[in-house]
UniProtKB/TrEMBL annotation:
It is a multi-pass membrane protein. GO terms for cellular component: membrane. The chain crosses the membrane at residues 83-104, 116-137, 149-166, 206-227, 233-252, 309-331. Keywords: Membrane, Transmembrane, Transmembrane helix, Transport. This is Transporter svop-1,Synaptic vesicle 2-related protein,Putative transporter SVOPL. PROSITE patterns: MFS. InterPro entries: MFS (IPR011701), MFS_dom (IPR020846), MFS_trans_sf (IPR036259). One of its GO terms (molecular function) is transmembrane transporter activity.
């Protein structure tokens, strides 16, 4: 029974006041009866409960901080600026593949004798691929990390974009561009990664500035097309458009993995190294203590978007995104048809008989003016 009381005292690790009471009961006037020894244990347990269950342990005195607290402590500096440029290069490389549709569609219509709905479907299949792959890339990013997913997305876009160069027919173009669209659905991973390392004060501003590389990429694409299509042809334009994706594979190794993902995956050491590097670059310091995972909040489900609390916001955001995408891609992707009708009248097929290189340079100036507005 002596060992029983000793074990109880050791397990609870009471402050000296509680231990003195235990000692008094254990060594006082009692003759070592079982009842009094059990009474001592009961007294210790009751005092622990009445004091709110406070435990005087070494673990309770340790300081902790989360990734979000570390990001706020590191602040905004050269680490975030460098991250912005790397993610911006990725965004610009994606915009090349998207804007490619606007410049090669008229060429394919002439070369393969396509009808207007055939040309329109080349664009449609890209967005079909995006709709299919968007939730899949999101799940992959949550499971394997942002950096790993960006490697997969970048290779996917470059590989199938390059394969499009060798398309022998219209239906091969449709199939391969649909796959490219599936890769483009994963491009928001770069925005998500950048947002995780931005302090709350700068997050909205920097994410809006994330559209600048997209505009630069579209201008670059049309510039290359203006000189490539009249001389080398549309297949070489596909090669030049896919090349930046393979270059990005080399740059992505310098992109940090999501610290939040690493902590959730149990790789706290790697997360600490990334945050320490960010603090060093920004000439700041991390909070004291150990890095811990943020409090896990219950994840919602798709049906929650239509609950009474969120249905209004859900519908409003969907309408806004539909209107924005419809207007933007409608004006950009239809610009070639508009310019051709301006030069040849309603019969755009005249360009197939007497191709005019100035169409591409007019298109270039149109894209430049349109994307300058984006800045």
């Amino acid at each position: 029974m002596e060992s029983l009381l000793t074990a109880a005292d050791t397990a609870y690790s009471r402050p000296s006041r509680m231990t003195m009471k235990y000692t008094k009961l254990h060594s006082g006037e009692s003759n070592g009866s079982v009842d009094q020894e059990l009474e001592a244990i009961a007294l210790l347990e009751s005092e622990s409960e009445s004091s709110g269950g406070e435990m005087y342990t070494e673990e309770s005195n340790k300081k902790h901080f989360t990734v979000e607290e570390a990001v706020e402590a590191v602040g905004f500096g050269w680490f975030q600026i460098r991250l912005y440029f790397m993610c911006g290069l990725f965004t610009a490389a994606d915009s090349l593949e998207m804007m490619l549709l606007a410049v090669i569609s008229p060429v394919l219509r002439c070369e393969w004798g396509l009808e207007h709905f055939h040309v329109a479907f080349i664009t449609t299949v890209v967005f079909i691929g995006m709709c299919i792959m968007a939730p899949i890339w999101g799940a992959i990013g949550d499971r394997y990390g942002r950096q790993t997913t960006l490697y997969m997305v970048t290779f996917w876009i470059g590989y199938y974009g390059l394969l499009t160069t060798f398309s022998p027919s219209y239906y091969w173009i449709l199939f391969l561009r649909c796959l490219v669209g599936g890769g483009l659905a994963g491009s928001p991973q770069s925005f998500a990664l950048m947002a995780e390392y931005l302090p709350a004060k700068y997050r909205a501003k920097m994410l809006i500035l994330g559209s600048v590389p997209w505009a630069i990429g579209t201008i670059f694409e049309v510039t290359v097309a203006a000189f490539t299509i009249p001389t080398l042809g549309w297949r070489w334009l596909l090669v030049f458009s896919a090349a930046p994706s393979f270059i990005m594979l080399l740059i992505l190794k310098f992109l940090p993995e999501s610290a939040r993902y690493l902590v959730a995956a149990g790789d706290k050491d790697r997360a600490i190294k990334i945050l320490q590097k960010a603090a060093k670059i920004n000439k700041a310091s991390l909070p004291e203590g150990n890095l811990v995972q943020s409090k896990v909040v219950q994840r919602g489900e798709f049906k929650d978007l239509f609950s009474s609390n969120y249905v209004g916001t859900t519908v409003m955001l969907w309408v806004l995104w539909f209107a924005t995408a419809f207007s933007y891609y409608g004006m950009v992707l239809a610009s070639t048809e508009i310019l051709q009708k301006k030069k040849t009248g309603n019969n755009v097929n005249l360009n197939c008989v007497t191709p005019k290189p100035y169409i591409y340079f007019d298109q270039f100036s149109c894209f430049v003016r349109y994307n300058l507005i984006s800045f």
